[in-house]
Amino acid sequence: xQSESQESLFNKNTKAILVLIIAIIIIILGLCRSIFxxxxxxxxxxxxxxxxxxxxxxxxxxxxxxxxxxxxEVCKEMAPKVSNLKDEYQKDINFVFLNVDNQKxxxxxxxxEVNGIPQVNLFDGxxxxxxxxxxxxxxxxxxxxxxxxxxKVESQEEIINTEFSAIKENKNNExxxxxxx
Length: 181
Known about the structure:
Number of helices: 5
Strand order of the largest sheet: 2-1-4-5-6
CATH class of the domain at 46-166: Alpha Beta
Number of strands: 7
Helix content: 40-55%
Strand content: 15-25%
């Protein structure tokens, strides 16, 4: 009889410890959630807060145009840097974010010859392309180009880093004999 009570006490203690461990894991995941998912959240919020490109190119303000994809690891890595730039300059510069997976932006993808992402294009207030950054970039390089936009420096530069994601071929609009639509 005493061993039965010891076993039931052991089972209760084991269950309590197990519940405590699960609670601790859930709390840790909840606290670290922002660290793990911040980049994905930022990329989604970019698309939602983006200025329409037609408005951006016609309102006489400089434009920061980024082509990105939510699956792009380099885009995720750069998202916090881009977010810092957006927070700092959004009053003076249009920020346009175009997801390369959205066929709605195919015209701009072709127009600006996007074949690697992230690709950032900087335009002056007249819509003239001044800088193109392809791949992973240091925030300071983009800041310098933005400063040159404000100073109206007359130059055009293209900076390509080997760390970028190739755009995946989007086959959503392809028509095949077996596809109806």
